[in-house]
Design goal:
By secondary structure, the protein is an alpha+beta fold. It is built from 12 helices and 17 strands. The chain has helices spanning 2-26, 31-52, 63-79, 83-96, 99-106, 110-140, 143-147, 157-177, 182-201, 205-221, 225-241, 373-378; strands spanning 247-254, 257-265, 270-276, 279-284, 288-293, 296-301, 307-312, 317-322, 326-333, 336-344, 349-355, 358-363, 367-372, 387-389, 392-394, 397-399, 402-404. The protein has a 5-stranded antiparallel β-sheet with strand order 11-12-13-14-17. It has a 4-stranded antiparallel β-sheet with strand order 3-4-5-6, with no helix packed on it. Strand 1 and strand 2 (257-265) form a beta hairpin. Helix 1 runs parallel beside helix 6 (110-140), helix 6 (110-140) packs across helix 9 and helix 8 runs parallel beside helix 10. The longest helix is centred in the first third of the chain and has 31 residues, at 110-140. The N and C termini lie far apart (61 Å).
C-alpha cells in the first residue's frame, strides 16, 4: 500500500512538472494554454495534498501585501459604478494570486528552480523576437501613429507589456548582480536589450513604469547611485524635451493650388476630424468630442475613455468610437449633440463601417456584429447590440450562423455567407 502511494505521488509530481513547463512556455504568448498549465498544476497539487496529508504550500512573505490587495479589490467592487464587471475582475485576480505558491510548491530543489527559470526566459526571448518582427512591420505601416499602441500578436499589447516588464526586471537583476564570465554577461545584456526593446514596442506606459520602478529598486538595493542618477537625469531630460502638439489645419483645395484656410490648436490629441456643413467635429484622444463652429469650440462632450472616431450613421444620428470598444450613439440637435445610448462590441475591435443603414463591427473575439439603425430608432434605450454574425470556419468552408442578442422580438435577422 505504501509503495503504491509513493508511485502515485511520483506520477503526480511528474505531471505537475509537465504542467508547470506548459505554464512557463506559454506565459508570454498564450493566455489559454497558460491557464491550462497553471490550473492543471494547481489541481494536481491539491490532489497530492489530499493523498499525502501534507501541506506543500509555504509562506512567501507576500501574504500581508496580498491581503491588502484583496481588500482593495473588494472595496473597488463595492464602490464601482459597474459592480458586475468589477466582481468579474475581482474573481479573476483572486484566482490568479496562488501563482507564486504553485511555483514554489512545485520546485523541489535549486536545480528545479534554475530549470524553470531557463525555460521561462528561453520561451519569452523567442516570443520577444517574434514580437519585434511584427512591431517592425507595425512601424513600417505607420500603425503606431494611428492606433497609439503596439501590435496585438499573442495578447493585447497592455498584457504583453506587463509580462515583458517582469522579464526586463529579471534580466536586469542578473545583469547587475551576477558575477559571471564575459560571455554570459554579453548574453544577459543581449537578452535584456531585446526584452527592453520589445517592451518599448508595446507602446504601453503601464509596462514601462513597472519595469522602471523595478530597476530603480534593484539599483537602490545594490547602492548603484551613479547609475541611478544617470537614469533619473535621462528620464527628466526626456520629459522636458517632449512636446505634445495637437493642431487641426483646414486647407482650400482648388484645381491648381492648395492653400491654408485656418488652423486650430487643441489641448489634447486630435485623433479624427469630421467636416459637418459649417462645423468641424474633432474626436480628441484626451478630451472627448469637440464641436467647432466658426473657429471656436461650441461644445465639448466627455466620454468614459478616449474618443478615436466619429461617423455619420443616418439622418441626425452619429456614432463615436471609444478606445475600449464602446460606441456612443449621438443625435444632432441644431449645432449641438446629445447622447442617446451605448453600443458594446464584445471583443477587440479591428474595424467598423456603415452600410445601408447597418453599422458593422468586426472584432477579434466574436466575429462580425451588425446593428440595425431602424431598430435603434424604435428602441433607443436598448443597450445591447441588435444582431451578431458569427462566421465559423469549418475545414476550408464557412458555415452560416446567426445569433440574436437584443431584448426585442422585433429584431430583424441578418445572415451572411462567405
Amino acid at each position: 500500500m505504501f509503495e503504491k502511494k509513493n508511485t502515485i505521488l511520483k506520477f503526480i509530481d511528474s505531471a505537475i512538472f509537465i504542467f508547470i513547463v506548459i505554464f512557463l512556455l506559454s506565459l508570454s504568448n498564450s493566455i489559454f494554454v497558460n491557464q491550462v498549465g497553471y490550473y492543471g498544476a494547481l489541481l494536481l497539487i491539491l490532489i497530492k495534498t489530499a493523498i499525502s496529508k501534507q501541506n506543500p504550500f509555504v509562506k512567501t512573505g507576500l501574504e500581508f501585501a496580498l491581503v491588502w490587495y484583496i481588500l482593495a479589490e473588494i472595496l473597488s467592487t463595492v464602490l464601482s459604478s459597474n459592480p458586475a464587471a468589477s466582481f468579474h475582475n475581482l474573481l479573476k485576480h483572486v484566482l490568479l494570486i496562488p501563482v507564486s505558491y504553485v511555483l514554489v510548491s512545485s520546485t523541489n530543489s535549486f536545480k528545479d528552480a534554475k530549470t524553470f527559470f531557463k525555460i521561462y526566459i528561453g520561451a519569452t526571448l523567442i516570443t520577444v523576437l517574434i514580437y519585434l518582427y511584427f512591431s517592425f512591420q507595425h512601424y513600417l505601416d505607420n500603425l503606431y501613429g494611428i492606433t497609439e499602441s503596439g501590435p496585438s500578436i499573442f495578447q493585447y499589447p497592455i498584457t504583453a507589456s506587463e509580462i515583458l516588464s517582469f522579464t526586463v526586471i529579471f534580466l536586469f537583476a542578473f545583469l547587475v548582480n551576477e558575477k559571471t564570465s564575459i560571455k554570459n554577461k554579453i548574453l544577459l545584456l543581449l537578452g535584456f536589450s531585446l526584452s527592453l526593446l520589445a517592451l518599448l514596442s508595446t507602446y504601453k506606459r503601464t509596462g514601462w513604469m513597472g519595469a522602471a520602478f523595478g530597476m530603480v529598486i534593484i539599483l537602490m538595493m545594490k547602492k548603484q547611485w551613479k547609475l541611478l542618477a544617470a537614469g533619473i537625469a535621462f528620464i527628466v531630460i526626456f520629459i522636458i524635451t517632449q512636446k505634445n502638439i495637437s493642431e487641426v489645419i483646414v486647407y482650400n483645395i482648388e484645381p491648381e493650388s492648395i492653400t491654408k484656410h485656418s488652423s486650430l490648436t487643441t489641448e489634447g490629441k486630435a485623433y479624427d476630424v469630421y467636416p459637418l456643413q459649417n462645423q468641424l467635429v474633432i474626436a480628441d484622444y484626451n478630451y472627448g468630442l469637440k464641436v467647432i463652429t466658426n473657429d471656436s469650440i461650441n461644445q465639448n462632450i466627455s466620454f468614459p475613455s478616449a474618443a478615436i472616431s466619429f461617423n455619420h450613421w443616418m439622418d441626425d444620428y452619429y456614432l463615436v468610437g471609444l478606445s475600449d470598444t464602446r460606441f456612443i450613439l449621438l443625435r444632432k440637435n441644431k449645432n449641438t449633440f446629445e447622447k442617446i445610448t451605448e453600443l458594446f462590441s464584445p471583443g477587440y475591435t479591428y474595424s467598423q463601417t456603415i452600410k445601408n443603414e447597418y453599422f458593422y463591427v468586426l472584432d477579434k473575439d466574436s466575429g462580425l456584429t451588425a446593428v440595425s439603425y431602424t431598430h435603434l430608432r424604435a428602441h433607443e434605450t436598448v443597450l445591447d447590440l441588435v444582431c451578431r454574425l458569427l462566421l465559423e470556419k469549418k475545414k476550408t468552408q464557412y458555415k452560416k450562423k446567426t445569433s440574436i442578442i437584443a431584448s426585442s422580438t422585433q429584431t430583424k435577422n441578418i445572415s451572411a455567407i462567405t
